[in-house]
Amino acid sequence: MFLLVNVVRHDDAYTWAAKRLYTTNSATRALEVRNVVAIEQLTPALEKAAAAADSLLFAKYSDTVLRELGIDEQVLRAVRTIIDKAQLKAFETLLPEDQCEVLQYLAEGFGPDEVYRDVVAVRRPVDAGPDPDESLAVAVAIANTTNRITLVTGPEELADILEKPFTAWQVFLHPSQRRVAYRVSYGGPVQITGGPGTGKTVAALHRVKHLLTRSPDTRVLLTTYTNALAGSLRENLSLLLDGDDALLGRVDVTTVNAYAHNVVTHLDGKAPSPMNDREERQLWQRVVKQLGLPWTEQFLAQEYRHVVLAQDLRTPDTYRSALRRGRGRALPSARRDQLWSPVELFESMLHAQKATTHLKVCARAADLLAGSAPTHDHVVVDEAQDLHPAQWRVLRGAVAPGSDDLFITGDPHQRIYDSKVSLGSLGISVAGRTHRLRINYRSTEEILIWSTGILSPVSVDDLGGEGSDSLAGYRSLLHGRRPHVDGYGSEQAEVAALVERVEGWINQGIRPSESGCAPASTCCSTRRTTS
Ligand SMILES: Nc1ncnc2c1ncn2[C@@H]1O[C@H](COP(=O)(O)OP(=O)(O)OP(=O)(O)O)[C@@H](O)[C@H]1O
């Protein structure tokens, strides 16, 4: 059996190999590699520093506990010198992979039992008896290391593997992602936030996998903001589930609007016909013209969207006493009575045209769902930051309140519309079940530092509408050149310089990262940046 371990230049390969030691992990029985020379050289100096430290990161775990999790003698000596998470991080590239992951989990606050269950037991072969015969040990370990080593028996098989789309996120999750995605169960709705590119969508996809595999007939609704995003979610879910049609058949991947449309079509027995944004604007223009009121069509459309539909107000009385948080100047009662007439006219015009709006379809779907059985066992919501309360009511109705009902991911910093939503008031209480992802997998640390410097003075409401959100601790493991800043006298000059720069990169053979951003048409952050 040959194992291809690295591809580097001739001399570098010798240096590399001389420093590496391959061993079998005693707990997972996987093959691991470590930089044995670096660990040996570093440990004595670190031991000295550790002797003077106030506390050590792994002090509360005994040698026996660590050994049971697969930590061997050399790593154990190094582990006893680690003071904090930053030092563990600095060690990461030197340590054997499974042992390193066990340590990361412990450092994140998981208990040894959880680590055994989530990291060791899932990898350890069911029939792992006592240590195998030494002559076979490496071969057995190679066969056991399915998360890092792929066995091929011939060139066709190798070609086949290289052709398949494969990305790291399908197999490797950072402990903070694994912790939220594979937690056995949550007592109610859970919210995952994080800056752009922190793997929220990846966590949502893995959660779907977890929910599907936990029970054989669970049905999951996975929603996102646009049809294009739903398309890429569907593709990635199929990759993650290895194209398993039985599992995929139990997930509906869609937008909230499309789901609401289906509910209404099914339960009302007739497909609604929502207008597009332009038609809606034209209808408000007609309302303003007909009534000759002192408000613009834009103001009325916003008031209708952010107050009337958001709070599901159906009578002038409820509107008179409604809160208008975030809507600017106060409107006294008399003004509100006056404002109700355009609302009524707009709705009667819709009725006359046998038309409706997307949000009204959602409101209708929520009403219908309130009077019928939930359609799914679990709802996973991606790109939650721009959902309207009417859409949240639909999602609330799609699943019965209780354990693992809603798993919500989003980034309030990427809101496109400035709508405030209080999830608690919509029956979606995430209190005590909010988590944040902090590692960006898409951009370099240099780009993040530069861009968060621009964003951080701006205060942003959190996802649940209960406080503000910050990007504290947001970082990247990737490194690159520092961003280059140039100023130009006109927009035209700026665009010309931009085109020249990008063309220069393309001519140098630099290509967009394939594992990086989604295609521009489906990527929220790209859409925001370019706009
Ligand atoms: N554990 C991981 N290992 C390697 N790559 C990862 C990991 N998690 C995420 N990625 C990659 O990082 C990129 C961003 O991930 P993802 O789209 O899930 O982030 P996001 O937080 O949903 O982004 P956005 O805020 O823009 O919606 C993707 O290319 C994804 O494949």
TrEMBL record:
One of its GO terms (biological process) is recombinational repair. The keyword Cell membrane does not apply. Keywords: ATP-binding, Helicase, Hydrolase, Nucleotide-binding. GO terms for molecular function: 3'-5' DNA helicase activity; ATP binding; DNA binding; hydrolase activity. InterPro entries: DNA_helicase_UvrD/REP (IPR000212), P-loop_NTPase (IPR027417), UvrD-like_ATP-bd (IPR014016). Transmembrane segments: none annotated. Pfam families: UvrD-helicase (PF00580). One of its GO terms (cellular component) is cytosol. Gene3D superfamilies: P-loop containing nucleotide triphosphate hydrolases. ATP binds at residues 194-201. Residues 173-444 form the UvrD-like helicase ATP-binding domain. This is UvrD/REP helicase N-terminal domain-containing protein. It comes from Streptomyces atratus.
